[in-house]
Amino acid sequence: MTAKTLPLARLRLLPPGGPGAGLPGLVIALGSMLVIWQLGAIAVRPWIPTPADTAVEIWANLQSPEFWLDFRLTLARVLGAFALATLAGAAVGILIGLSERAEAFFQPLLALALAVPDPVYIIFAILAFGTGEVAGFVALTVAVTPFVSNIVRSSVRARDTGLDEMARIYRLPRAAALRHQLLPQLVPALLTAARFSFALSWKLAVVVEAIGQPDGIGASIFESFRLLRMREVAATAIIFILAMQLLERGVLGRVEKRLLGWRG
Prior knowledge:
The chain is mostly helical.
C-alpha cells in the first residue's frame, strides 16, 4: 500500500456516521422550519403566532400548575390505553397467527376494524358511555388494538416453521415452546407494535379529550382554539408533542436497543 492510498484506506475504515454526523442537517432543518414559521406568521397574522410569542407562552405554560394537571391526566390516559391495547392486540395477533380457526373468525373483524376511521370509535364511545373516563379509555383501546394485532399477526405468519417442527419432535410443552421458541422471533414485531401503539395512543388521546373530555391537554387545546388564543394552542401542542417524543425515544427506544443490541 502506497503513501497516497493509505489515507483513503483509513477513511474507508471509518464508520459512516458519528456522534455529530446528523447535527448539521438537524440545524438546517430547524432553521428552515423557524424561517417558514416566521414568514407564515407574518402572512396570516394573527392566526399563526410568531416563534418568539410561542416561546414566551411555552415558558408560561411550564410554570402553570393547571397545565401540569392537564398533562398528568392526559399522560395517565395515554399510558393506560397504550398498555391495554398493546397487550390485547399482541395476544389476538398471536392467536390469529397460530390458529386457522381463529383467523377465520377474527380476520373479517380485523379488516373491518382497520377500515373504520378513528373518530367513529370516539363518537360511538361517547354516545354509549357519556363523556367520562370510560368512553375515552374504550375509544382509545378499540381504535389502537387492531393495528397492533395486524403487525403481530404478520410476524407470526412469517416465523420459522422449522422451529415449530423441532418443538413437536422434542415434545416441548406449549408454554415452553411459546416462551423459548416463538416469542424471541416476535421481539422485533412486538417492539414495532408497541411504538406504533404508543404513537397512535397519544395522538388519539388529544382528539378524545378535545371532543368529549372536560380536562386534559386536548380539552385545553380546544378551549384555547374556541377563544382564538392561538399562542396557547401552539405552545400547549408543542410541549406535549416534544414530551411524547422524548418518552417514546427515551423509554421505548432504549428498550428496543437493549433487546435488539445483538444485531449490532
